[in-house]
Amino acid sequence: MAEVTRGKLTDRRSRKMVERSFPRPNWASSKFGHVGRPFQEGGLGPDRPAARCSRTNTGAMAEGQFKLPPPPPQPTFRVEKLNPLAMPRNVALTCELTGRPALVQLVTPHITLNFASKEAAMQSWEGILCKIAHIIGTLLAPSTSVGSELERAERARDVMACQVALVALCNEEASRHIVQGHFDLAVPAATYSLRFATAAYGEGKLQLVPAYLYLAEAYLGSTQYKKAEEYLTLANWALLKTSGASNALCSQLRRNFGKLYAAQGRFDEALRQLVDDVYYSSLRVGPEHIDTSGGYYQLANVFYAMNKIESALAMYDKVVDIWYRCLAALLAKDAAHPLSEAKGHAGVEMLKVILARREECAGETYIATGEAHYILGLLLQYCGDPKSAQKHIRTALGIYENQLGPEHHSTKDVARSLVQIEGCVYPSTEELEFPAPADGTVESDLEYKPWPEPALSPEPENVAEHP
Asked: Of 23, 140, 196, 224, which residue is the least packed, with the fewest Cβ within 10 Å?
């Protein structure tokens, strides 16, 4: 007879008997048909086994600093067709993304997931699964032992922390895909973010709003307006029933509603939503921040669609001015935080559209067009594309010289920036290797001299990027 102390079995043999009597469920042979199904059914609750992820200590985990294991250097996968006759009776496998009947399987060394088509499986793999398949495989693996109450509680905390870390990773990937214009890849990343967040926090919670917004923005980019409006409505309801919503979430919700209404031709409603977006963004980071410039940019697009050209150009001028102040601080290394890759890419896309609109409305030789070339060139220089930056700044210099003269201080600023970029594009002779002449002598007429730093006239103020 096993000794019982405070309701716990202390005999090892008895504990093993309990484990054999009440085994952990085997998802591979259950009615779900595969390990991926409990994930789809929201089976990532506290009773699920912990992923084999590392954390430094309990204090770091409590603060949300959970370290996910990196993906394999070269992850492998294959897509196989499903055989419906091989499935048990009354078992219908559904797609991880759409919920439709599954026709193929995405097979990896860690987990196998079901999808409706090969295209959906490939998009999910490229969008997010290539970075998290090894994690969710261990997250859903059966536990090797029941463990004590303390061990089960610790395992539940690990699962919760892992889910939160996966939500952050999925949101980051979704944002990156949206900025790059890969909306088909952003949908799987945002979908998995929503599932992990639902498993960690529950249905309809405030923490689900970022995933709703990423899904809405992805569907907006792919012109699926009905789905986008559904997710925006869910996000709006979650914000309405929860007090203390951040200004960042309110701003992003209003901006996406404005973009949706503008795409549907409801311009008056779009303007009201975008005005609210600028208001909430100004409360968070100020009216002269690059995050707020996105609201001005969307307002300008709506005015342009309404054929209010003067109002549109005024908003475009505001966007260009904000980005010039931001780049003045960044290039002078006075900004508190560097510009992220996603925001840099978004700024390039905005300035390209503004440049095209100024060329169309004002002309290619107008001073405002030269200014757009100059600011776009500075941003490309900061983002690590000196050749494209050189092209735009050289065009801006020609416009400034024709309109203002070569002795104007703005023209000199553009000229100094061009000189510095040309020094980056064409390196010094010490960095180049020249073939030796046939007679054995080495001669070169190239002489490199360091170029002065660019002197940008406006003083930077309130341009440090929000962390």
From this structure: 23
Query: Are 330 and 338 spatial neighbours (Cβ–Cβ below 8 Å)?
Result: yes
Q: At what angle do helices 209-221 and 183-201 cross, to 10 degrees?
A: 160
pLDDT per 10-residue tile (average), the chain, 467 residues: 42 45 37 35 39 40 62 88 81 87 90 92 93 83 73 84 91 91 94 93 92 96 94 94 89 96 95 96 94 96 96 95 91 74 90 95 92 94 90 94 91 91 54 40 37 41 40
| Secondary structure of residue 458 in the 3-state scheme | coil
For the CA atoms of the chain, what is the radius of gyration?
Answer: 28
How does strand 8-9 pair with strand 104-107? unpaired
Contacts of 73 (CB under 8 A, 6+ apart): none
For CA atoms 151, 152, 155, 157, the dihedral sign is negative
The answer to whether 106 and 121 have CB atoms below 8 angstroms apart is yes
Count of helices and strands (H, E) across the chain: 17, 5
Global pTM reads 0.73
Q: How far apart are CA 419 and CA 417, in angstroms?
A: 5
Region of 54 (left: φ > 0; alpha: ψ -120 to 50; beta: rest) is: beta
List strands edge to edge, sheet with 112-115: 78-81, 104-107, 112-115
Q: Specify whether the CB–CB gap between 465 and 343 falls below 8 A.
A: yes
User: For residues 38-61, b (16+ Cβ closer than 10 Å) or e, as one string?
Assistant: bbbeebbeeebbbbebebeeeeeb
pLDDT for res 391: 94
